[in-house]
Fold this protein.
Amino acid sequence: MFHAGSPGVSAEVGGTVAVELVSGPGTGDSVHRMVASPASGHDDVEGIDVDRVQSWFADSVPGVEPPLTFELIAGGRSNLTYRVSDGGGRRYALRRPPLSHVLPTAHDMAREYRVITALGPTEVPVPVTFGLCLDEEVNGRPFYVMEFVDGHIVRDAETAERELDLDARRRAGESMADTLAALHAVDVDAVGLGDFGKRAGYIERQLRRWDEQFRNSTVEGAETATIINAVHDKLAADIPPQVGTAIVHGDYRLDNSVLGDDGSVRAVLDWEICTLGDPLADLGLLMVYWTEAGDEAAILGVTPTTVPGFPGRAEVKARYAAASGRDISRLDFYVAFGYWKLACILQGVYARYVGGATAGDRSSVEGFAASVVRLAEMGLQTLESS
């Protein structure tokens, strides 16, 4: 997910840096696969104190059968996800904060666990949660355990073509729209999330947050501020009225979902930056990622929806509008905001890499400034054409 400190970066493609703004499976940072079991004689898997965590499982998770095996399946600067297998063949997912790059207000395990648990009884497909450990004596940092949901995580065109037939691809687009509408229909008070965040002024708060992030991520010699500031001011001058309050996922897209063989969403993942606010922000960002064949937006590096069979943006938007009953006539504003926000996030990645994450080697991130500018320009073009 993207928040200050989480995005990863993939390789340079055709002179343009392709950005993979994800947390969890598919992160642009290196994904390490390490397996450890207390019965294997191997050292602990990185990020897991196997003996203590296994003891916690035995005390906290009903029906678990030691010994446990841990495999890191998603790493990087965002929350780490491990597949945990027990002696009886049951599988679980364990989430914990990253080993480094931890911001004071980020990677809140209790917050992520709370929203998934609250959504369990609703129509929103989420994993079943089994337990939250806040005792840092167990594993150094808090963690939680949930169901491991089998299915497909579709991150690229190759996976889409291999795992989903034409009907399943169409169903995936329909299910993504229906699932998002279901999320936004949840009564936040009824599920105990009425105090999960401020309700009003979501876009105003987001503009302040990411503008501050951008200003704290300057890179000497990189001229990105002019266009970023111009788009910020244009957005701030014409914010649509927020109609209602909903649970906002914050990074809702195809590869943050587990799909069944028929394309239906089986589980929505990565609730790391979920809060309350304007639901159309989720739909706007989904449209940024929902690329079509020939789109320049493919510079984002997330292009499975370019494969034949997936419904186009217009169909997904119409499906959401019909399922939610919401007026999406001002959606272009939220799409533009999504482009601008991603530009600010990429600027933060750029600054961190130049500042030491690549040992000061600026050649490895030369295209970042151009990509920041281009994302912001796409936001401005969206506003001007609406």
Notes: The radius of gyration is 20 Å.
